[in-house]
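User: Continuing from earlier, I have the next pair ready.

Assistant: Great, send them over.

User: Here they are, in order.

Assistant: Folding the first of the pair now:
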Amino acid sequence: MAHPHNASTSQINNENLGQYYDVIVFCHYRWQFVYQRPQHIIGRLATNLKVLFIEEPLLNPDSNRSGNLIVMNDNLHILQPNVQNIESIAHIIPEYVTNKSVPVGWFYSPSFSPLLKHINFQTVIYDCMEEPSLIKGDSKDAINQEKYLMSRADIIFTNGRSLYESKKQYHSNVHLFLGSVDKSHFSKASNWNTVPDDIAHIQSPIVGYYGIIDERIDFSLLHETALKLPNVSFVMIGPLMADVQNLPKKTNIHYLDMKSYDEMPHYLKAFDIAMMPFVVSDATKYISPAKTLEYMAAGKPIISTKTGDVVDYRICVNVIETAEEFCNAITFLLDRMDRLSLEMEYYSILKKTSWDAVTHKMESMIRTFSKGNA
């Protein structure tokens, strides 16, 4: 199966942009930012369907073009709208989409819900990744937008058990699809003999994290643990979205830049332990980090705070609450971990999941629903 992160991209500059699309996706995450659930699922949908993936507007007043269309491959196009706001996207859709009725409208964010008044979708999907009421800013607007989206949605998918329990109270067709993993990709971490230069010079043992570094990270926990274990290196890989002033600054805490999806197994190779040091709060109540499975596929022991749906994997994830527990877990895993037992537990979990299987089941549900309403 083709994976779009490996595809070469090009931009369309000609005026004849209009094409027929089977699916239009609206997403608040940018395709070429952190590679996560939307890219995994939509990239696979685009194997058989023609997909237009529309990001949030990125206004460039110096350009007279209505948007930037990026071709990932023949079946997957990314549109970066050059408009003032989300509702204005409706005015430029006819330039890019020739069909008056679109088979599937796929929403990752309720903020795009006003477009439902302007575009005719035969089937509306809401793939819910987070709780809108906890999003920074005007949560009241987000809640109302989600209520409207759910009232129009035919099928709702959620990526976590907590979100599933929440949304099924308001809709009769909600389905849980936990985050999955590309096992063959992340298992490469076990095969390479070398690691990238910017992590190769960091003293081992390394306890590492990759992902967005924002207010959901428990910086106090990280700082206190690093203070207690000065001979352990803590490596944070990813884009800095938090106030730099809040970042703990110890000689054994290292911040590396964002890395591509293809690079991640190389960096995982250097980890002795993988961590998810999320703060325990409303902001992480519904979090369902796919990196849990990615760490497993790389064969790394895992330490996590007790957030979101990580407890689903408690049998093989070291769940901690304090810096003292964090230190004890690190010491135990470095000194006395039973790696064979851990690998067997990982195998029993990983054999049951794959992004290919998740996408296939989603497609089957959509086809069944469409036929039943034809």
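And the other member of the pair:
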Amino acid sequence: MLQTTFSSSAAGPAKLLERTPDGPGLLLFASTDADEARSMVGRVMKPHILKISGSERLDARMHFLPLGDVSVSRLRYGPAVEIGPGPLEDFFLVQMPLVGSAAIQSGPQRIDSHPELASVLSPDDDTCMKWSAGNDQLMVRIARSLLERTLVAQLGHPLDSPLRFTLGFRWQACPLWQCLLNYIVDCSTQCSDLMVHRLVVDQIEQLVASTLLAAQQHSYSNTAPARRGTILPRHVRRATDYLRAYAHEPISADQIAQAAGVSMRSLCAGFKEFLGVSPMQYLRDLRMECARTELMSGEAANVSGVALRWGFGHMGRFSNDYRLRYGETPSQTLRKDGLSRTA
């Protein structure tokens, strides 16, 4: 079962989340050994530096609930600790103290986090933390690719700089976030084999990403979507469907217009008005997404082969455009996947 009770100080006036992932079936580890705790947390987060402050004995305990590109966990160390993960690189992390406090430095931002104030760590910012003795945190880990895909879909155009959140997040004063956490816990409580139901997990992934983007201030919060309507015109939908189906093949602008059943002028005007890009730029962005997916899949042998397969013949330009869009080079993406498979 996933049942436990928050202390009154952690629950706050909204009595948020009377249940949390804290049951025997989800116990990832319990240990008094610092090396073991660091290794186990590193498996589901990332390798990091862990230093115990003072002479108090470590009493680490972590519960973990994987949900595809999202995971929910609860972690405590017992004594005061210093944690140095550096840049998170491929995920965002929401840390919500249930008890105790933590000093969080992430990039240029710094906060003293406590049960009323969570922290939202962005993947490109160098991060170091000091958790107080007795600090007990509920954490939501969200894959960078999931959040970026969701934001691109909302905006209707590619990101021109990495997504970054404001560090401090008043999570208990946010009904959207409260409802989300309660929903996840309820689903997990009532369905012990939730991961088997892929469609449900997909919906949870999208719900988490959309809710965080709506609930917390970020670098694109004030950016207006490119398209002006909620429904794409038929000819634009036909064109995007065609591009997604045949992105792996040579495609000309004339072919796109023919598939959409409109003139080239109407096609370009529709893409510009509703998607904010030209049809060929949309195709290029789509192919870039496909290349990233392949680099992360574990099936790619090298970057050049992936780039050429998706129509990128100039390696230097591909690498530069990729880095500007995803905050890392194609080689770094490929290398991270190789490391994850050998870990």
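Worth noting for the second one:
DSSP finds twelve helices and twelve strands in the chain. Residues 234-342 form a domain with the Arc Repressor Mutant, subunit A fold (CATH 1.10.10.60).
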